[in-house]
Amino acid sequence: MAYIAKIGPSILSSDLSRLGSECVRMMGCGADYLHLDVMDGHFVPNITFGHPMVECLRKTIGLEPFFDMHMMVSRPEQWVKPMAAAGANQYTFHLEATTNPGNLIKEIKESGMKVGLAIKPGTTVEELAPWANQIDMALVMTVEPGFGGQKFLEDMMPKVSWLRSQFPSLDIEVDGGVGPDTIHKCAEAGANMIVSGSAVIGSDDPRSVIALLRTVVSEAIQKRSLDR
């Protein structure tokens, strides 16, 4: 069983005027990676930031933090090279945003980044399945992408369970409404990469929240390996 628990704070929930120091703070609190939400105002209604900010963050906080770019953009092909040059480590694109996932996966790998493939709540997990052996991570959205602070969609958990049963060593990420109240459901379903925004960053004690999330996921992974 190759996968382990990893917790990635969603930095869009932080004080954007102090983004560099917030990233450093999250890593200091035990984050395994940083989840960066890129929105273009087309694929989703909101606009956030692009590769120039990623480049500035990389220069400011150094090479160590793993940047998982969640590309909520309508033309993901356009930003592969700029994001790679800016210092992104993983390029997670939406299946709904491209007509040629295979070609895009190849481009991302050739640029030196890991590949994440995301699906919205309305997209079936079977549509992602043909690409699962070519990617590093599958992202099952547990809210509609584009807005923070939404309620966790528990009915997405069967997608996670199905992916875990079919692709036992795949990294499976959940994103949206995930925190101490919902982590058990995610962990039991088989998610191992946990994106959490306000529940971590808005907490008075982010270190404890990150530790709690990791413990719950690690215990579920251990139980799954014993049950096999």
From TrEMBL:
<dbReference type="GO" id="GO:0005975">
    <property type="term" value="P:carbohydrate metabolic process"/>
</dbReference>
<feature type="binding site">
    <location>
        <position position="70"/>
    </location>
    <ligand>
        <name>substrate</name>
    </ligand>
</feature>
<keyword id="KW-0479">Metal-binding</keyword>
<dbReference type="InterPro" id="IPR011060">
    <property type="entry name" value="RibuloseP-bd_barrel"/>
</dbReference>
<feature type="active site" description="Proton acceptor">
    <location>
        <position position="37"/>
    </location>
</feature>
<feature type="binding site">
    <location>
        <begin position="197"/>
        <end position="198"/>
    </location>
    <ligand>
        <name>substrate</name>
    </ligand>
</feature>
<keyword id="KW-0408">Iron</keyword>
<comment type="subunit">
    <text>Homodimer.</text>
</comment>
<keyword id="KW-0170">Cobalt</keyword>
<feature type="binding site">
    <location>
        <position position="10"/>
    </location>
    <ligand>
        <name>substrate</name>
    </ligand>
</feature>
<dbReference type="InterPro" id="IPR026019">
    <property type="entry name" value="Ribul_P_3_epim"/>
</dbReference>
<dbReference type="InterPro" id="IPR000056">
    <property type="entry name" value="Ribul_P_3_epim-like"/>
</dbReference>
<feature type="binding site">
    <location>
        <position position="177"/>
    </location>
    <ligand>
        <name>substrate</name>
    </ligand>
</feature>
<dbReference type="GO" id="GO:0004750">
    <property type="term" value="F:D-ribulose-phosphate 3-epimerase activity"/>
</dbReference>
<keyword id="KW-0464">Manganese</keyword>
<feature type="binding site">
    <location>
        <position position="70"/>
    </location>
    <ligand>
        <name>a divalent metal cation</name>
    </ligand>
</feature>
<keyword id="KW-0862">Zinc</keyword>
<dbReference type="InterPro" id="IPR013785">
    <property type="entry name" value="Aldolase_TIM"/>
</dbReference>
<feature type="binding site">
    <location>
        <begin position="146"/>
        <end position="149"/>
    </location>
    <ligand>
        <name>substrate</name>
    </ligand>
</feature>
<dbReference type="GO" id="GO:0006098">
    <property type="term" value="P:pentose-phosphate shunt"/>
</dbReference>
<feature type="binding site">
    <location>
        <position position="35"/>
    </location>
    <ligand>
        <name>a divalent metal cation</name>
    </ligand>
</feature>
<dbReference type="GO" id="GO:0046872">
    <property type="term" value="F:metal ion binding"/>
</dbReference>
<protein>
    <recommendedName>
        <fullName>Ribulose-phosphate 3-epimerase</fullName>
        <ecNumber>5.1.3.1</ecNumber>
    </recommendedName>
</protein>
<keyword id="KW-0119">Carbohydrate metabolism</keyword>
<dbReference type="Pfam" id="PF00834">
    <property type="entry name" value="Ribul_P_3_epim"/>
</dbReference>
<feature type="active site" description="Proton donor">
    <location>
        <position position="175"/>
    </location>
</feature>
<feature type="binding site">
    <location>
        <position position="175"/>
    </location>
    <ligand>
        <name>a divalent metal cation</name>
    </ligand>
</feature>
<comment type="similarity">
    <text>Belongs to the ribulose-phosphate 3-epimerase family.</text>
</comment>
<feature type="binding site">
    <location>
        <position position="37"/>
    </location>
    <ligand>
        <name>a divalent metal cation</name>
    </ligand>
</feature>
<comment type="function">
    <text>Catalyzes the reversible epimerization of D-ribulose 5-phosphate to D-xylulose 5-phosphate.</text>
</comment>
<keyword id="KW-0413">Isomerase</keyword>
